[in-house]
Design brief:
Elements: E1 2-4, H1 22-27, H2 57-60, H3 62-70, H4 79-83, H5 89-101, H6 105-130, H7 134-160, H8 167-180, H9 183-201, E2 203-209, E3 212-217, H10 225-233, H11 255-267, H12 269-281, H13 288-312, E4 317-318, E5 321-323, E6 329-334, H14 337-345, E7 353-357, E8 363-367, H15 374-389, E9 394-395, E10 398-402, E11 407-411, H16 423-437, E12 443-447, H17 455-472, E13 475-479, E14 492-500, E15 503-513, H18 520-528, H19 533-541
Parallel strand pairs: 5-10, 8-13, 8-14, 11-12, 12-13
Antiparallel strand pairs: 1-2, 2-3, 4-9, 6-7, 6-10, 14-15
Amino acid sequence: MANAANPDMLDRGRVRRPAPSADQAVMERPEPAAVISILFERPADRGGDSLTAPAYFVNLNCDQIVDAVTAGKDEYNLKPFFYDCLTRVDAIRYRHEVMRDLESQFLYERVIGFAASMRDMREHLRRAQKMHYKEQRQAWFLDAVAIYCAAVGGFADDLAETDLKSRGFLRLRDYMASYAGSARFRSLLSATKKLKDDLAAIEYCVLAKGTSFTVCKYEDETDYSVEVEETFAKFKQGAARDYRVKFPASEDMNHVEAKILEFVAKLHPEVFVALDDYCARNGDFVDRTVAVFDREVQFYIAYLEHIAVLTRARLQFCYPRMSDKTKDVYAFDGFDIALAHKLVGEGGSVVCNDFHLQGQERILVVSGPNQGGKSTFARTFGQMHYLASIGCPVPGREAQLLLFDQMFTHFEKVEKVENLRGKLEDDLVRIYEILNQATSRSIIIMNEIFTSTTIQDESFLSKKVMEKIVELDLICVWVTFVDELASFGPQTVSMCSMVVPENPALRTFKVVRRPADGLAYAMAIAQKYGLTYDAITERIRS
């Protein structure tokens, strides 16, 4: 019986040097200075893949955001990009431009298709490494290169047809056009096509006798299968039982198939020698810029996919105006992304809030009853500045934000026996460390500090800390029960979490700019000691 050689039964080739894993070969190759980056306008903007989450991540729930955004994309190792806050305003504009280009459905779909092809290529390389037989590994490698060549050529054509505006994509388009037309790529494409055609053209015969078989070249032997079918067709009387043997769907070969292929290789040495040489020469076939783009563009795709859930729920995102000089900041209809995803998933509604600082104003003092949205407001402020610093659209209708150099948070912590400090001492040590590191371009977010002491001591210590913050001229959000801090000076702005006027026990979760009413701390004390109206009424009834 005549057979065409099956390329899936061919192998990756001789290893003439230690071969990296598929992920290392494609995703982690060192990048030369000439590599085009869709994420970093300049090489100096890149922080590196060894970055870890900033200290403020947990307090602001930024860890939840990054975990959700990068879920299912572990192969790209995206988290270091989300830990790497940019330090130049123009570096942020560079990413905004790319994001806006990706709002084009045509480009977005082409990028998704290119990424799918690159994943398919990497999967072929991974499977090739698991194959037991050389010729089969080589065939999977050859197919991986073919997938890569088709993806590169197609994507270069797609970019040429797209109306691009961003510096990142314009640079990439020029590079892809140059690379796809280069002698190096054309040679790889030509060699790949020729080898696949040569392998597909191989025909051979297997002569089986008892438990042995012979493999020989196909020399136009007669194929009697058609004549046999025609002879027995006249005896057909309806559907008959199918006696055909179903071969296993395993991608690997058994020892008999491997032996047949070994004999086929001996019958056609010129093709298989060429395959050996091809695999040895093209072990590093993936272009560095192509590999870097394939990884980096997932930063944008992952974030856009994540916020799409919220935009479908009619929540707004915007590209913030960024400055590293002015401290006039504002946002309209901002919200906590981590909380919003949870609420939207549960069918709940998301409360949006505004804020602004102008002129001498530096400190938002947020007061109000417990569980009224104060901490969420503080997290929203921090999240928006963090997301803006990595060049992402931020939650809200419109925003102008500060490109900070450092962000610090001080949220209440459970006492740790091992540090031998009480809660007040721990608060003081942490605040001291923050103020020693902060600069005039830093942001501090504090949530109910010094609560372990008396109201008099809390007020005294808070004012001392506020004096230092004013001296440093930095931006701060301070959640507190000490209402008098809101009138500390022209640098402070009072924000209050609101309740339903007819029923103060019901929270609206709106935080508005208005003078503190002096009742927040009293309500907290009353709740702590069971002296609220509802608590007293319940005790009287019982």
